[in-house]
Amino acid sequence: MAPLLPRIHFYEIDDQSWFPSFLREKVQAALTLLWTDYLPPFQWISPASLVMKNLQSILGPSIKDYTFIDFCSGAGGPTPEFEREINQALRLGLVDDDHQQHNHNTNNTATKTTITPTTTSKRKDVHAASTPSNSHPTSSHQSSSSSDPSVDFILTDLFPHIPSWSLACAKSPHLHYIPTSINATSTPPNLLSLTHRPLPPTTPSSSSRARKPFHLFSLAFHHFPDPPARATLHNTLLHASGFAILELQSRSPSSLLTALCLGPLLWLVSWYQFWGDWTHLFFTYIIPVVPAVVVFDGLVSCMRMRDRGEILRLIEECDGGEERGWREGWRFESGRAYHTWPIGEATWFVGIKED
Q1: Rounded to whole angstroms, how far apart are CA atoms 104 and 115?
Q2: β-strand 175-177 against 330-340: which pairing, if any?
Q3: How many CB atoms are closer than 10 A to CB 278?
Q4: Is-contact 335 110, C-beta < 8 A?
Q5: H or E element: which one contains 69?
Q6: Strands across the sheet with 330-340, in order?
Q7: What is the rounded distance in angstroms from the CA atom of residue 43 to the CA atom of residue 137?
Q8: Chain centroid to CA 56: how far?
Q9: 318, 230 contact by CB (below 8 A)
Q10: Which DSSP state fits 18?
Q11: What angle is formed at CA 301 by the lines to CA 283 and CA 6, rounded to 5 degrees?
Q12: Host H or E run for residue 50
């Protein structure tokens, strides 16, 4: 069903160059908290856990074949939580064919679309911008054991947040970052070799593991106006084997109401979540810049959201140039589920390149 509200691509404060970088870091830390924490009885699992369980359900056992590259990572966002969630399930052997039944939440709604081959032409890789000459990976951890079923996650951003990423990556050998600027509309062909430490080697029994790129856009894709959104999808369909657009809102009255509740929620929880970060607490309680920006940008984010049909339309509008059949074999799934009872809704749009 089409959204009740028209799409409006208004500006978000956090995107503006004039917004002080130290305040942007505080806002992004608050957004990460909204992804990774939960508040009973309105939430029984974190929104990050909710969307990852549904992504596990869609990918099933093939989840082991991918390296997950998060674009527009900000201060890290939910990606470290995603890494813990998925790798814990893999190590415990909880990812199997049963996960493809999509039965994690009875309130989920899902839709599928497959682009079937219409031509005999082969898909070819189109290489984008070259890698900066000063980009050299350095090793700070030992490679993972070849028997470890874990998959790797990589943080990237146009403006890398090295201090925050370093702290997060120090906690897991399967979480990495790229220290140079990465533009989601034009990724370098050697992207996986640019991580701050080498990725663990693949094993003979799963030679494709950790080498099939899966692009993640967590609370990020709505930031793109239509031209860069098309360019990002085009780049993704050419160079990735899968992608997921993950959001914590939709273009609906209920999501607008949820965004209005974020300010009181941050006032309620920030004092103990950010205890010791006196700058964060000052700009939350004394001069409430952080909750004000989160609420304003949250409202704008709702109005920037695209539904399934609008994303598929962007894909159809992508210009393949001389490439033929570059969209063939892709399967698309989308869905939604409540992350906060009774109005907070998470949405996802997932694309999988079927070999």
Answers
A1: 26
A2: unpaired
A3: 9
A4: yes
A5: strand 66-71
A6: 109-114, 330-340, 344-353, 242-247, 212-218, 66-71, 153-155, 175-177
A7: 40
A8: 14
A9: yes
A10: T
A11: 145
A12: helix 47-59
The one-digit pLDDT tens for each residue of the chain (355 residues) are 667 789 999 999 998 999 999 999 999 999 999 999 999 999 999 999 999 999 999 999 999 999 999 999 988 889 999 999 999 999 988 876 544 444 444 355 667 666 544 333 333 333 333 334 334 333 344 444 457 789 999 999 988 989 889 999 999 999 999 999 999 999 988 888 888 888 877 654 444 444 799 999 999 999 999 999 999 999 999 999 999 999 999 999 999 999 999 999 999 999 999 999 999 999 999 999 999 999 999 999 999 999 999 999 999 988 665 555 667 789 999 999 999 999 999 999 999 998 7
Bond from prior residue into 47 cis (ω within 30 degrees of 0): no
**305: nearest Cα among 210, 229, 194, 204:** 229
Neighbours of 137 (CB within 10 A): 15
Report the chain's terminal Cα–Cα distance, integer Å.
Answer: 31
Distances in Å between the Cα of 308 and the Cα atoms of 69, 106, 117, 145 are 22, 20, 21, 40
Cα angle 51, 171, 192 (rounded to 5 degrees) comes to 70
Per the listing, tokens 């990002």 go with 232
Backbone angles phi, psi at 95, to 5 degrees: -100, 110
d(CA 62, CA 281): 43
pTM of structure: 0.84
How far is 5 from 17, CA to CA, in rounded Å?
29
Residue 199 phi/psi, 5-degree rounding, is -70, 150
Q: How far apart are CA 248 and CA 30, in angstroms?
A: 14
Which residues lie closer than 8 Å to 41 by C-beta, 6 or more apart? 341
In the block, tokens 């869609």 appear at 58
